[in-house]
Specification:
Elements: E1 4-12, H1 20-40, E2 46-50, H2 52-61, H3 63-74, E3 78-80, H4 95-113, E4 119-121, H5 131-137, E5 142-146, H6 147-152, E6 164-168, E7 171-178, H7 180-185, H8 191-204, E8 209-215, H9 225-231, H10 234-244, E9 249-251, H11 254-260, H12 275-280, H13 284-300, H14 304-307, H15 319-322, H16 324-344, H17 353-365, H18 383-407, E10 422-427, E11 436-441, E12 444-449, E13 455-461, E14 466-467, H19 478-487, E15 525-528, H20 535-539, E16 554-559, E17 563-574, E18 577-588, E19 591-602, E20 609-618, E21 628-632, E22 637-640, E23 645-657, E24 662-685, E25 688-705, E26 712-721, H21 723-736
Parallel strand pairs: 1-2, 1-8, 1-9, 2-3, 4-5, 5-7
Antiparallel strand pairs: 6-7, 10-11, 11-12, 12-13, 13-14, 15-20, 16-17, 17-18, 18-19, 19-26, 20-25, 21-22, 21-23, 23-24, 24-25, 24-26
C-alpha cells in the first residue's frame, strides 16, 4: 500500500533575555495547548525542537511540560531533536562553539528525556555547506532546511519529495526539505487547503515524504492565532483530518522517515537561509529594488514561476555590515571565545575547571541569535535582548580574567591576587583593519575607536554585567516607507509591513517619529557647534561646524601597574580654521570605577566665540518610570530618563536606575549647559510598529570666547556606582541559602 508520509516539525524558541512574562504567555498560548491537543490524537506524531534557552525556563518554571513530552515520546508521538544549545546562528559563531553547543545540547536532552537525539533544527535555517562537517562531528545524523535551499541548488518542487544526502570532507548528512507551501497554509488557511495540497502530491508521487517545519509560536502566540488555532478549532480540525485519512496519509517523525524511506539522491546547497531572511539582510535601498522587482514580475510575467527559481536575495553574514551594532556584539563574542579556548589549553586548567565551564555556559548564552539581526521580529532593535547578550559575554569575560590572573600566580593564589588592577590593550577588536583601544580593570571595560571619532563605543560595568553603550543607531528600514505611506492614506507599492502583511501601528503619529542618525550614537562624540544653537536644532542634526565627530584621531598610550592612559589627538576643521583636540582617557587603580577624561583644545583663533560639546549616549537605562531619573549636583531630580531637558548651569549630571541598581554620573570641572533627550527608534515586531527607547542622549556643552593663548580645557569624570545592584545580589544569595 502506498502512503504519503507527513512530518510535522515544530520549533519552539524564546531568546535569552526575553521577559519572563513573554515565556509564560507563549507557554499558555502555544506550547501547552499544542501538547494537550496532541495527546487527544494518538495517531498524530510530531518532531519537536525546543531551544535550550526556552527548555531551561520550562524545566525550572513548568516541569509538567517536560513530563508531558517524556510521556508522549515514550508512546512514539514525539521525536525530540536538538541543535546548538542556545540557538545561535551557526554562521555567527566559531566552529569549536558550533560543535560544542550541539554536543552539549544533545547530552542535555538525552539526560532529560532518556531518548537518543539524532536530528537537529538549524537556527533560522541559515546554511553554509561547511556546516555539514560540524553537524556530523557533533553526532547529528539529519536535519531540515527550507525547500528554497534546494531550489537554489537547481531542484524543482516536484523533486523535493524525500530527504537528500549531502557531505563535507566525507561527513555524510541527511537533509529534509521543508515545503514553503505548507509554511503558508499551516495554520493560516483552512485545514482543507493543506489536505488538498498533500492529496495532490500523493496522487503524483506515491510514497513521498512532505515536511512542515516552522515556529510553534504560529500556533497561538502570533497575533490572532490563538483564537483561530484553538478557540475556533483550526488545530482540532487539522488533526482530525490527518487521523481520518490515515489510509494514505501517514504521520511520521523524521527518525521514522530515515528508517523507512530511501534518500532521493545527493545534493550540495549554496549558502542561504529561508527566502524572507535573504530579503531582510539586503541593504534597505536594494531591498526595495528587490521587492519591487519581484512584485512587478509576478504580476506581469507569464513565466514568473520559472524566473523566481533563479532570483536570489542576500547572504546572512551581511547583517553584520547592515547593522554595525551586530558586528560589535559579534566581535566581543569572538574575543571571549578565543580567550576561553586559550585558557582551556593552559597547563593548569584542571584547577579552574568549574570556572571555565561556567564561562563556557555564559559564552554560549551570549551567542543566542535573535539579537544579531532584524527582520519581521524586533530582534536587534530590542534593547533587553542586546543587553542580555552583553550580560553573558561580560560575565564570561570577568570569569576568564579571574582565571587568567590565577594562572599567572602560584597555585591557590587567586584569593591573594590584587583586588584592584588596570590594563590597556591595543588591537583590531572590531575587525575593521584599524586598531582599537581597550582599558580594562577589575570593575570596568572601556573600548575606544581612534579611527572613528575617538568614540568610547563600549563601556562594560562588571558589577551589573551591563554595557551602557550598547546603543543602536536609527537608520532607514523598508517598512518606514510603509508607515509614512499609510499615514498619508497611500500605498507605497511594497508589502513590507508585518508578518501578516498589515500595517499595525501600536502608537499614533509614528510617521513623525522616523528620524535617522548621521554618526554613531556612542560616547565622547566631539562637536563644534554654531553659537547659540538650540536643542531642537541640534537634535535635528543641524549646526555642526567641525569634522571631529567622525574624524580619525591619533593615539599615544601610557601604561603602568597603577594607571593607564589613552591620549587621542586630532588636528581638524572648525569651519575655516584648523584646530587641535586632544582627549585623554585614563583608568586608575585607586579609582577603578571611574574613567577620567580630559579635553584640551589648542590652536583656537583668539577672541572667537566657540560652542563645544561632548555627546554621551547611555543605553540600558530606559525611561518612562519614576525610579529611573536624572539628578543634578544638589541631588535634585530633573526628570525621568526619557525627558528632554535644557539646563543652563551644570557641574554634575547623574542617571539613576533604581530597579537595575546603578548610578552613572558625569562630573565637570567647568560648569556647562546641558541637553538631554531620548533616542527612540521606530521598529517592527510581530505585534506591529512601535517606538523603542534606545538610549539617553546627554550633551554637556560650553560657550566661551577663546583666550589669547588659544587654549581651553575641561575635565570630565565618568563614574559608576553599582553598589545598590551588588547589595541586591547579596540579598538574593542570602535568601537562596
Amino acid at each position: 500500500m502506498t502512503q504519503l508520509r507527513l512530518a510535522l516539525v515544530i520549533h519552539n524558541h524564546q531568546p535569552i533575555g526575553n521577559f519572563d512574562g513573554v515565556f509564560e504567555q507563549a507557554y499558555q498560548d502555544s506550547y501547552r495547548p499544542m501538547l494537550d491537543m496532541l495527546a487527544e490524537f494518538p495517531a498524530v506524531a510530531i518532531t519537536l525542537h525546543n531551544s535550550g534557552s526556552l527548555l531551561e525556563w520550562l524545566v525550572e518554571k513548568r516541569p509538567e511540560y517536560i513530563d508531558q513530552i517524556r510521556q508522549l515520546a515514550e508512546r512514539g508521538q514525539i521525536e525530540v531533536i536538538g541543535g546548538p544549545f542556545y540557538e545561535p546562528i551557526l554562521a555567527c559563531i566559531p566552529q569549536r562553539d558550533r560543535v560544542g553547543q550541539m554536543r552539549l545540547y544533545s547530552k542535555y536532552l538525552e539526560g532529560l528525556f532518556g531518548v537518543p537525539v539524532k536530528g537537529m533544527w538549524v537556527p533560522e535555517r541559515v546554511w553554509e555547506q561547511s556546516f555539514t562537517k560540524d553537524i556530523v562531528d557533533a553526532g547529528i545524523e539529519y536535519t531540515v532546511l527550507d525547500d528554497y535551499h534546494f531550489r537554489c541548488a537547481g531542484l524543482t518542487n516536484d523533486k523535493l519529495t524525500s530527504f537528500f544526502l549531502t557531505e563535507d570532507e566525507g561527513r555524510l548528512l541527511k537533509v529534509f526539505p521543508v515545503a514553503e507551501r505548507l509554511r503558508y497554509t499551516i495554520p493560516f488557511e483552512a485545514p482543507e487547503k493543506t489536505f488538498e495540497f498533500l492529496r495532490g502530491v500523493y496522487e503524483k508521487t506515491p510514497n513521498a515524504v512532505m515536511v512542515f517545519g516552522d515556529d510553534g509560536e504560529k500556533f497561538g502566540t502570533w497575533p490572532g492565532t490563538k483564537e483561530a488555532v484553538f478557540e475556533k478549532g483550526w488545530l482540532r480540525t487539522f488533526f482530525q483530518i490527518l487521523t481520518d485519512n490515515a489510509s494514505w496519509l501517514k504521520m511520521s517523525t523524521l527518525a521514522e522517515c530515515v528508517e523507512n524511506v530511501l534518500p532521493a539522491g545527493r545534493i550540495y546547497m549554496p549558502d542561504s537561509s529561508y527566502r524572507e531572511m535573504t530579503e531582510w539582510v539586503l541593504p534597505t535601498d536594494r531591498q526595495k529594488v528587490y521587492l519591487n522587482l519581484r512584485q512587478k514580475k509576478q504580476k506581469e510575467d507569464a513565466d514568473w514561476s520559472q524566473l523566481a527559481e533563479f532570483l536570489r536575495g542576500g547572504f546572512w553574514r551581511n547583517f553584520r555590515t547592515k547593522y554595525p551594532e551586530a558586528n560589535e556584539m559579534y566581535c566581543r563574542m569572538l574575543q571571549v571565545s578565543r580567550r576561553l579556548e586559550e585558557l582551556t589549553q593552559a597547563d593548569r586548567k584542571r584547577e579552574f575547571a568549574d570556572q571555565l565551564s561556567n564561562a563556557r555556559t555564559e559564552l554560549y548564552r551570549g551567542q543566542c541569535n535573535c539579537s544579531y539581526w532584524h527582520g519581521a521580529f524586533g530582534g536587534l532593535y530590542l534593547p533587553h535582548l542586546r543587553h542580555a547578550v552583553y550580560a553573558h559575554l561580560i560575565a564570561a569575560d570577568t570569569i576568564l580574567e579571574q582565571v587568567a590572573r590565577g594562572l599567572e600566580s602560584p597555585a591557590n593564589a587567586m584569593e591573594s591576587a590584587p583586588a584592584r588592577w588596570v590594563r590597556l590593550d591595543c588591537e583590531d577588536f572590531d575587525l575593521d583593519a584599524r586598531k582599537e583601544l581597550r582599558l580594562t580593570g577589575d570593575r570596568l571595560v572601556a573600548y575606544l575607536s581612534p579611527s572613528k571619532g575617538g568614540h568610547l563605543y563600549e563601556f562594560d560595568l562588571r558589577g551589573i554585567k551591563q554595557n551602557i553603550l550598547g546603543t543602536l543607531n536609527r537608520r532607514p528600514e523598508i517598512y518606514h516607507e510603509a508607515i509614512i505611506a499609510a499615514a498619508a492614506g497611500q500605498s507605497n507599492g511594497v508589502n513590507a509591513a508585518s508578518i501578516q502583511g498589515e500595517i499595525r501601528c501600536k502608537q499614533a503619529d509614528l510617521d513623525k517619529k522616523i528620524v535617522y542618525d548621521s554618526y554613531p550614537r556612542k560616547a565622547l562624540v566631539d562637536h563644534f557647534l554654531q553659537p547659540d544653537l538650540s536643542l531642537d536644532e541640534f537634535r535635528a542634526g543641524h549646526g555642526l561646524v567641525g569634522d571631529f565627530f567622525n574624524g580619525v584621531y591619533h593615539s599615544l598610550l601610557r601604561r603602568s601597574r597603577e594607571r593607564v592612559e589613552a591620549c587621542l589627538a586630532r588636528k581638524g576643521n572648525l569651519a575655516s580654521y584648523k584646530v587641535q583636540v586632544t582627549k585623554t582617557v585614563s583608568l586608575d587603580v585607586s579609582r577603578s570605577g571611574e574613567l577620567e577624561i580630559r579635553y584640551e583644545l589648542d590652536e583656537l583663533p583668539p577672541g572667537l566665540p566657540i560652542h563645544f560639546a561632548v555627546e554621551f549616549n547611555f543605553s540600558g537605562l530606559p525611561g518612562g518610570a519614576s525610579d529611573r531619573y536624572y539628578y543634578n549636583a544638589a541631588g535634585q531630580r530633573l526628570g525621568q530618563l526619557d525627558a528632554t531637558l535644557s539646563v543652563e548651569h551644570c557641574d554634575r549630571i547623574g542617571l539613576v536606575d533604581e530597579w537595575l541598581g546603578v548610578d552613572v554620573s558625569l562630573d565637570l570641572s567647568k560648569s556647562s549647559k546641558l541637553w538631554t533627550f531620548p533616542i527612540e527608534s521606530v521598529s517592527q515586531s510581530e505585534g506591529g510598529f512601535e517606538t523603542v527607547h534606545q538610549a539617553c542622549c546627554v550633551v554637556p556643552h560650553w560657550d566661551f570666547i577663546v583666550p589669547p593663548d588659544g587654549k581651553w580645557s575641561v575635565d570630565i569624570k565618568l563614574g559608576v556606582d553599582c553598589s545598590a545592584a551588588q547589595a541586591k545580589e547579596l540579598c538574593k544569595a542570602g535568601e537562596a541559602r
